[in-house]
Amino acid sequence: MDKYIDTTYKPNEPIGPSGFSGWLIIPLLVMIFSPILNIADLSGLFDFMYGMNGMNQILPQSFIESLETSLTLSKMMLFPYTIFTLFVAKLFFTKDYRLPRMYQYLIIANVCIVIVETVSYFIYFRPEWEQLLTDINFSTDYFFKTIDSQVFKNLLQVLISGIIWYAYFNKSIRVKNTFVRNQELGIDL
C-alpha cells in the first residue's frame, strides 16, 4: 500500500460521490431557473407572445375565447406548481432528506401539467384553429401535421426525461449521500 493513501473508514464521510456535482448539476440548474421563469410567466412577462394587438377585430370571438381559456388553464396550473417548485428548491439547497421524494413528486406534477396542456390543445385550441383556417381556405394538412407532431414530441420528451430523473432520484448514490444520508446520521444542516 502507498503510505500517502488514507484507507481508514470514516463514518462521517460518505462512501462514493456526494454534493452538488455530476448529474446532480442539471436538477440544480432546474431549481435555480424554473421558479424564475415560472414567476415571470405568471406575472405576464411572456404574454406579449400571445397578445392579439388589434387582432380582436379580425379573428372570430370563439377563437379568442379558446386562446384565453387555454392560457388561463395553463396559468392556473402553473401557480401551485411554482409554489411547489419553490418548496422543493428550498429542500434542495438545504440538502433536506425529503428532497428525493419531493423532486419525484415535482416530476410527476410536471408530466401531469403537460398531459393536461396537450389535451387542452386538442379540445380547445386545435378545433378553433382548424375552423379559422378552413374559413379562409388555408390548407391545414401540413400545418396541423407539424403542430400536432410538436405537441406529441413535447409530451414524449417530458415523459422520457421524467422517467429518467425519477429513476435517478430513486437509485443514485450521489443523491443518497447528499440528501438522505444526513438524516440517517442525524446531521441537521
Low-confidence segments: none
Q: Give the CA-based shape.
A: elongated
Helix content: 55-70%
The arrangement of helices and strands along the chain is HHHHH
Quaternary status of these chains? single chain
Which structural class should the secondary elements be placed in? Answer: mainly alpha
Largest sheet descriptor: none
Strand content: under 5%
Number of contiguous helices: 5
Mean pLDDT over the full residue set = 81
Distance between the termini: 36 Å
What does this structure look like?
By secondary structure, the protein is mainly alpha-helical. The protein has one domain (22-185). The protein has helices spanning 25-42, 61-93, 99-135, 141-171, 173-185. Helix 1 (25-42) packs across helix 2 (61-93) and helix 2 (61-93) runs antiparallel to helix 3 (99-135). The longest helix has 37 residues, at 99-135. It is elongated and about 80 Å long. The protein starts with 24 loop residues before the first helix and ends with a helix. The model has no long low-confidence stretch (mean pLDDT 81).
Give the gist of this structure.
The chain has 189 residues and is mostly helical. The chain has one domain (22-185).
Question: What order do the helices and strands come in, and which of them pair?
Answer:
Blueprint (H helix, E strand, L loop, with lengths): L24 H18 L18 H33 L5 H37 L5 H31 L1 H13 L4
Helix pairs in contact: 1-2, 2-3, 3-4
Features:
mainly alpha; single chain; 189 residues; 0% strand; elongated
